[in-house]
Design goal:
TIM Barrel; binds pyridoxal-5'-phosphate; alpha/beta; eight-stranded parallel β-sheet
């Protein structure tokens, strides 16, 4: 696998997209989406310049932590998090990107309080209003953010989104633009020095350049770095 070459190619395209948008290349960080990868592949990615790993699944993350696979990189949790698994993630992931409900927010607060630490989080917005997706609807973002600001063991650092699967090239861009407006808006409203709202996490292998053109500061990329993943088997699909 041409992992080092892939990482460099993605970084080059990120820098070009940033430049096009009049932004510094250093204003965008590549988060390697490491789901299904082995600890050795993760180590190789870090050796080749990955500085942040993003994990989706608690079980995989726990196994890689036991292996010290993330050594030398920061760790973000980017997947759907069930409240009963919060204890495996709080204090282990430096940033939990996928907080999409009040219930989850409060479970994270409780665990962070128990560990006596402050957990950095992003609020996940269901920007496409899709029923099947997690994240808060855009209309519920401000109340949830205000709640987050009141919690002493939570530090709200920004927003994350996964737009609807695009049918055509540049299909995600309008959703990224919507996210940028929400991000600007919420930074205005939450003008409170308790928090530094500096992360807008959006864009994956198919569309990270458009996300950067619209202001992403974190892009989460898997396939373009590691190659295609085996399909997920779901019992309800033929
Ligand atoms: C898998 C995953 C990604 C990366 O997806 P690719 O299309 O492989 O780049 C990004 N974000 C989340 C939340 C993911 O689960």
């Amino acid at each position: 696998m041409a992992l080092a070459e892939n990482i460099q190619a993605v970084k080059d395209r990120m820098a070009a997209a940033a430049q096009e948008a009049g932004r510094e290349a250093s204003s965008v960080t590549l988060v390697a989406a490491t789901k299904v990868q082995t600890s050795d592949t993760i180590r190789a990615a870090i050796a080749a310049g990955i500085t942040v790993c993003g994990e989706n699944r608690v079980q995989e993350m726990t196994a890689h932590l036991a292996d010290n696979a993330y050594e030398g990189a920061a760790l973000h949790f980017i997947g759907h998090l069930q409240t009963n698994k919060v204890k495996f993630v709080v204090g282990r992931a430096g940033l939990i990107e996928s907080v999409g409900s009040l219930r989850l927010l409060e479970a994270i607060e409780a665990q962070a309080a128990k560990l006596d630490l402050v957990q950095d989080i992003l609020i996940e917005v269901n920007i496409g209003g899709e029923e099947s997706k997690s994240g808060v609807p855009a209309e519920e973002l401000f109340p949830l953010a205000e709640r987050a600001l009141l919690l002493p063991h939570i530090r709200l650092r920004g927003l994350m989104a996964i737009p609807p699967a695009a049918e055509e090239i540049h299909g995600s861009r309008p959703f990224f633009a919507k996210m940028r407006r929400l991000f600007v808006d919420i930074k205005d409203k939450m003008n409170d020095n308790k928090t530094i709202m500096d992360y807008l996490s959006m864009g994956m292998s198919q569309d990270y350049e458009d996300a950067i053109r619209e202001g992403a500061t974190l892009v989460r990329v898997g396939t373009a770095l590691f190659g295609p993943r085996p399909p997920i088997r779901r019992p309800d699909t033929p």
